[in-house]
Design goal:
The chain starts with a strand and ends in a 6-residue tail after the last strand. The chain is built from 7 helices and 5 strands. By secondary structure, it is α/β, with parallel strands linked by helices. β4, α7 and β5 form a beta-alpha-beta unit. The chain has a 5-stranded parallel β-sheet with strand order 3-2-1-4-5, with helices on both faces.
């Protein structure tokens, strides 16, 4: 069974660490053992993760090993906007949530479980959320 994982900005940074946080390592090991996994990163997440320029080499290496969604169709954008509605969440979080919904993702790695949880509630889904810190390494 393939495990589909979506990363937000903090999730991408955590995945790119030379030594990722324990929950991310556990997920990586589970994917390796099953021999099947997809890791999806919406392109807006790349903007978040590379904004400081720090650790860009580690992030760039990670981006070569995952699927980066480089376009957001108008229909996908409308679905993300519909999930966002009047919630005070970022457009990037709405795109991450829409990506999770569209790909029927099993797992999301984020530092923002409350905002994504609210979006998932609106979508009627409950993927496994792995929470990572936002601190620098």
């Amino acid at each position: 069974m393939t495990i589909t994982t979506v990363l937000d900005g903090a999730g991408l940074l955590a995945w790119a660490r030379p030594i990722p946080p324990r929950p991310v390592v556990t997920l990586m090991e589970l994917i390796r053992r099953r021999g099947a996994g997809r890791v999806i990163v919406p392109s807006v997440v790349v903007v978040e993760a590379l904004r400081s320029g720090r650790h860009s080499g580690d992030v760039e290496a990670t981006l070569r090993r995952v699927r980066v969604e480089t376009s957001l169709s108008l229909d996908d954008a409308r679905r993300a906007a519909g999930l966002r509605g009047d919630l005070t969440v970022s457009a990037a979080d709405a795109v991450v949530a829409e990506t999770v919904v569209r790909h029927h993702a099993d797992v999301v790695v984020t530092s923002d479980p409350d905002d994504l949880g609210a979006l998932f509630g609106r979508a009627g889904i409950s993927p496994h959320i792995i929470v990572v810190g936002t601190g620098a390494w």
